[in-house]
Write a structure and sequence with these properties.
TP_0789-like; lipoprotein; alpha+beta; 253 residues; 13-stranded antiparallel beta sheet; single chain; Outer membrane lipoprotein-sorting protein; outer membrane lipoprotein receptor (LolB), chain A; 4 helices
C-alpha cells in the first residue's frame, strides 16, 4: 500500500511540474537561441539536393533589425550572378521583392518557394513566439540532425494570424538547453510540407546557434535543401534600408 501511495504521489508531482511549464516561454527561449537580440548580419548559403546530387544553390546576405519583438529584414541576393542585386524586404509580416532589372518591387508571399524546399519565410528572421501560440505536447526522445539522441519537449504551435508562413508547426526543443532540434511544418489542411533539423551548433554572437538547417520535403524525402549560415556579425542596419521606397537606391557597403 505504501509503495502505491509513493507511486501516486510521484505521478501527481510529475503532472504538476509538467503543467507548470510555460510552452510560450519555452518557445521564446528557443527564439533567443536562433536569433540575436540586436541588429546583425549574416550570410546564408542555400544548397538544393535531388537524390543526393546538388542541383542548385544561391547565396544571400541578410541584414536583421529587431523592432518591437519582431524583426525587419533586408536580404540581398549575392549569387548566382543572374540573381545578384535582387532584394527581399520584410517589414512586419509584409514581404517585398525588388528586381533591379525592372526597377520594380512587388509584394510576395512568405510561403513562396525561394530555392528547393526553402521558402521566403524560411530565410527571414522570425521570432516564432510573436506569431504562434504554443502548447506543450509532451516529452520525447528523438534523433537530431547529427544522429544523436536528444530528450526533448514537444511543442504544438498554431498560427495567431493568417499572414505567417505556416499554419501549424510541431517543434522539438532540447530539454536541458532549449535548443531547437527538429520541426514539422503543415498546411492548413494538415498536410506535411517539410521537416527541418537544426544542427551544427556553434558559438555565434555570444550564444550557441545552429549553423545549418536541413529541410526535407514532406512528400519526397530525396529532395533536401541545406541552409548554411556563416559570417555572423553585429551590424547597424539603417532605418532607410528597411523602407520600400529606398530599395532602388540601396547600395551594399
Amino acid at each position: 500500500m505504501k509503495k502505491i501511495l509513493v507511486l501516486i504521489l510521484g505521478l501527481v508531482l510529475h503532472s504538476a511540474s509538467f503543467a507548470a511549464l510555460d510552452a510560450q516561454a519555452l518557445l521564446a527561449a528557443s527564439d533567443t537561441i536562433r536569433n540575436p537580440n540586436k541588429s546583425f548580419a549574416l550570410t546564408t548559403h542555400l544548397i538544393e539536393y535531388r537524390k543526393g546530387k546538388e542541383t542548385d544553390r544561391n547565396t544571400l546576405a541578410i541584414y536583421s533589425r529587431p523592432d518591437g519583438g519582431r524583426y525587419r529584414n533586408l536580404i540581398r541576393f549575392v549569387a548566382p550572378i543572374r540573381d545578384a542585386g535582387k532584394l527581399l524586404l520584410k517589414d512586419g509580416n509584409d514581404l517585398w521583392f525588388y528586381d533591379a532589372s525592372s526597377k520594380a518591387s512587388v509584394r510576395i508571399s512568405p510561403q513562396q518557394r525561394l530555392l528547393g524546399q526553402a521558402s521566403n519565410g524560411d530565410v527571414v528572421t522570425v521570432n516564432l513566439a510573436q506569431d504562434y501560440r504554443a502548447e506543450l505536447a509532451g516529452e520525447e526522445d528523438i534523433q537530431d540532425g547529427e544522429r544523436k539522441n536528444r530528450h526533448c519537449y514537444k511543442l504544438a504551435l498554431k498560427a495567431s494570424s493568417e499572414d505567417v508562413t505556416y499554419h501549424r508547426i510541431e517543434m522539438w526543443l532540447d530539454i536541458s538547453s532549449k535548443q531547437p532540434v527538429k520541426s514539422l511544418f503543415y498546411t492548413e489542411s494538415g498536410r506535411l510540407l517539410k521537416t527541418a533539423y537544426f544542427r551544427h551548433y556553434q558559438m555565434q554572437l555570444g550564444v550557441e546557434r545552429p549553423s545549418e538547417t536541413v529541410i526535407i520535403d514532406g512528400l519526397d524525402p530525396s529532395w533536401v535543401t541545406v541552409m548554411r549560415n556563416s559570417d555572423f556579425a553585429w551590424r547597424d542596419v539603417p532605418e532607410s534600408w528597411l523602407q520600400r521606397d529606398y530599395l532602388p537606391r540601396f547600395k551594399p557597403e
